[in-house]
């Protein structure tokens, strides 16, 4: 069984890890070997991770001898190798497929802008921090949220690429979930709220929901005033 | 087919170059194209914003389809035109896995080059710190060492024995590094790969026009 020759090292709440786990669920690859590691305890820099991923980052993923560590790479790899099992994650129709690719890569900009706000203090050493920079990052994220609200308004269906769930949703949903975890108002961003509500109970997403979010249902408030 | 395509691009931009290489490799010569100037702010012009509200290049249209991210455009072109031109996605799980791994690993490489080259452009004067500049340079050095390692024992191409999306996407980044003063002595494997591919027809034909006029800035010479 293919899943038995797979190993995923992951951390709870990491969007990249979550993307890989959603993809594995969607492709019916439950049963893969996995190990939950702690970023706080620096376990992502441990030997077992470095043996698979010299960059000391999570997710780290092996399928037999094939090592694929980047979350988008894992998603594309799994869909290409297991196209005919589980859910099809890349649409056949050219327009839908193109929209999927477009949203996936815009999703990287989205994720980066979110991190530049919620992880500002983690990324920037204390002596280099400026209120003006954080303020600018918040404005950039607000603009980005506006773009995604508009994307969802214009989408031909309820999912990012149209009427079917695709790799665009696999890679972008975790970022959306983060917005609400950090207090974003569904009232002010109704389309984002609808999208989140639609997908949060999808089996693959529910099955891979960050365990520490379940333990601590109360999130953070960094985006409450957006 | 190519007649229904339009590419708005800027010279010397690795993302734009990738799409041009992919179009050549897939035998889609004859697409409509317009060279715009970043310096004159033309990437923020109405004609770009109509295709790409983010005001970035490349901006690419194929009929009603719009793809403004270079990876998205390259993946779309390979999948849509699989049976013509060069096959850009290999067969076999190991090579497919390696190809996807490398193209996404290339993103931190491109980003770190940008953090060094564009520091003063991205960071307002009151927010600049020598400590940040130093850190960015160290990070790029470390990243280049990783790639020098990846290319150890590499054949003519990044993945296996054939030209693939990995080369489409990553060659422009190495060329950009070298153009901006990156050392061929310190990174001999990168330099060798660069020299092997720079005369490939799709690459030669789309070589940035602004690079033909003379040498670039040596900003990266100490990396």
Automatic annotation (TrEMBL), chain A:
GST C-terminal domain mapped to chain residues: 93-226
UniProt xrefs under InterPro entries: Glutathione-S-Trfase_C-like, Glutathione-S-Trfase_C_sf, Glutathione_S-Trfase, Glutathione_S-Trfase_N, GST_C, Thioredoxin-like_sf
One annotated Gene Ontology cellular component of this protein: cytoplasm
Transmembrane segments: none
Record GO biological process: glutathione metabolic process
Span of domain GST N-terminal: 4-86
Organism: Oryzias latipes
Superkingdom, taxonomy of origin: Eukaryota
GO terms for MF: glutathione binding; glutathione transferase activity
Name of this chain's protein: Glutathione S-transferase rho
Pfam families tied to this protein: GST_C_3, GST_N_3
Gene3D superfamilies per record: 1.20.1050.10, Glutaredoxin
From TrEMBL, chain B:
Taxonomic superkingdom: Eukaryota
Pfam family, one: GST_N_3
Domain GST C-terminal: 92-216
Signal peptide: none
Domain GST N-terminal: 3-85
The family this protein is said to belong to: Belongs to the GST superfamily.
Protein name, per record: Glutathione S-transferase rho
Organism field: Oryzias latipes
